[in-house]
Amino acid sequence: MRIVKAILLSLLCLWLGCVLVYVGRIGYEKWQVTRNATEFFSLLIGGQWEQAADLTLAGAYQGDPERQQSRRMAWIERMTALKEQGFYPVAYRHVTADFDDGCVCTGHVDLTFQHGDRTVTYRTVFTLHKDYRVNQVCPLSPSGDAVETNGWKSMACFGD
């Protein structure tokens, strides 16, 4: 009977250890995503599009540096064009990382856009590259009256 109790206790401890490691890994991944996303959105809001492009496109087209540079320049040019049209992000808050389907692959942020003389805040979903960098940034629903976001979506929602 003592051997059975020892085996059961050992199995319970092993199971608890596995659960703690799993939960710890998820917590670490969420922290890493939140940190990376916060850095990306800070650069984006600050108009530092070159650095934001470097963050989001660093892993894209690794085997083809010419294509990577072309994509980077196109991203920066589209951000500049959107700002000249009067539509650009001006603030963010509530960055969260989501665990779903066995990975931390997405997150949400409240992203505020300037549109002409008014601002509109959208609940926005972002997807991630494998190394937890922001990939796609897609506005979902506004907290007020909606404005046209197709220019933004065509640039930031298709991803790599």
Shape: elongated
Indicate the mean pLDDT: 82
Largest sheet: 4 strands, antiparallel
Q: Which regions have little confidence, pLDDT < 50, spanning 5+ residues?
A: none
Give the C-alpha Rg.
21 Å
Residue share in helix:
40-55%
How far apart the termini lie comes to 59 Å
Number of helices: 4
Number of strands: 4
Structural class: alpha+beta
What fraction strand? 25-35%
Order of helices and strands: HHHEEEEH
Q: Taking strands numbered 1, 2, ... along the chain, how are they ordered across the largest sheet?
A: 1-2-3-4
Describe the structure.
By secondary structure, this protein is an alpha+beta fold. The chain is built from 4 helices and 4 strands, in the order αααββββα. α1 (2-45) runs antiparallel to α2, α2 packs across α3 (65-84) and α3 runs antiparallel to α4 (150-156). It has a 4-stranded antiparallel beta sheet with strand order 1-2-3-4, with helices on one face. The longest helix is centred in the first third of the chain and has 44 residues, at 2-45.
Keywords:
4 strands, elongated, four-stranded antiparallel beta sheet, 29% strand, alpha+beta, 160 residues
Summarize the helices and strands and which ones pair or pack:
Layout: H1 2-45, H2 49-57, H3 65-84, E1 87-100, E2 103-115, E3 118-128, E4 134-142, H4 150-156
Antiparallel strand pairs: 1-2, 2-3, 3-4
Helix pairs in contact: 1-2, 2-3, 3-4
